[in-house]
Design a protein that fits this description.
about 0% strand, mainly alpha, about 300 residues, single chain
Length: about 300
């Protein structure tokens, strides 16, 4: 009977999810217009900042469609995906595909122990179905969070690389300005000197901005907001303020690049210090274990004699 109830609950949840995907919700005109404006602004920002979904992410059209429905429902409730969207933009993924992947991972985590418990219950071995259900809920929560944690960790590494590229980009722009080029030409020339993924993203953003009639510094500011890199926003603000004065722009860019390198060096030294402390703790633990290994025979001999 328990097996029948669990199987019926799983089948009912699947039917409910399938009906939710296929159902046509009632549309509030005001909410629909606000959502349309938000999607239009998001699409314009994606075009301007050269957002592309990288191949090999496993995001099919069906998954993005389901994730889009889920994202719309969550945004209506008031859940914002600002930081997650910036992380996924750096990784070349979409929020819709990420949500669908998280739901799929949670479903797999829930079904694994439940199916195993059902098989063992039929074979009259060990694990009961209620215990398997509880374990499945715990695993569903863990599996559902894993894609987000992995995305944030990968995005942190790519953002660190992006900041390093921005420092080099500032130096290249300053050198082009020193050669007598204007600000737009200096930005375009500096971005064309490398084929790394970060520099390609900057170059595509500048090219898209020129096609859409947007100033390069405004496009770089949008890119900084999109990927969460404050240095690009600062660069956009500086170029917007002094776009007509090449000398001041050059001095400002050189100072910003130097400040960025000093901050990166401080972060590297801090991480090196943390790793040195970790190695010191590991060495102390090893020494304590070795001393315990030396003292143990003598201590046991004393205890046996007493």
């Amino acid at each position: 009977m328990t097996l029948i109830l669990v199987a019926g609950a799983i089948a009912g949840a699947g039917v409910l999810m399938f009906g939710y995907v296929l159902s046509v919700p009632r549309i509030n005109p005001a909410a629909a217009l606000a959502r349309l404006d938000a999607e239009r602004s998001r699409a314009r920002r994606d075009r301007l900042t050269a957002v592309t979904v990288s191949s090999g992410t496993g995001e099919s059209a069906t998954m993005r469609r389901f994730g889009g429905r889920l994202r719309g429902s969550l945004e209506i409730v008031g859940i914002n995906f600002g930081s997650l969207r910036r992380d996924l933009s750096l990784l070349g993924r979409t929020v819709e595909g990420h949500l669908a992947t998280s739901v799929l991972a949670a479903l797999v985590g829930f079904l694994m122990p439940v199916v195993l418990a059902a098989i063992l219950s039929v074979a009259e071995i060990g694990l009961s179905i209620p215990a398997g259900t509880v374990i499945g809920i715990i695993l569903a929560l863990i599996f559902g969070v894993i894609p987000t944690l992995s995305a944030r960790s990968s995005a942190a590494d790519r953002r660190r690389d992006f900041r390093h590229v921005v420092g080099s980009f500032l130096d290249l722009v300053a050198m082009n300005l020193a050669g007598g080029r204007g600000v737009p030409e200096a930005l375009q020339a500096a971005s064309s000197l490398s084929d790394g993924w970060a520099m390609v993203r900057i170059r595509d953003t500048l090219l898209t901005a020129r096609l859409h009639g947007v100033t390069p510094w405004a496009a770089l500011g949008e890119l900084g907001d999109e990927v969460g890199v404050d240095e690009l926003r600062d660069l956009a603000a500086a170029l917007a303020l002094v776009a007509e004065d090449g000398a001041k722009v050059r001095e400002s860019l050189a100072a910003r690049a130097s400040s960025l390198r000093r901050r990166e060096l401080a972060e590297i030294e801090g991480k090196a210090g943390q790793r040195s402390q970790s190695m010191l703790v590991a060495q102390l633990v090893l020494c304590c274990g070795f001393l315990l290994f030396l003292v143990y025979p003598a201590l046991m001999g004393v205890l046996e004699q007493s």
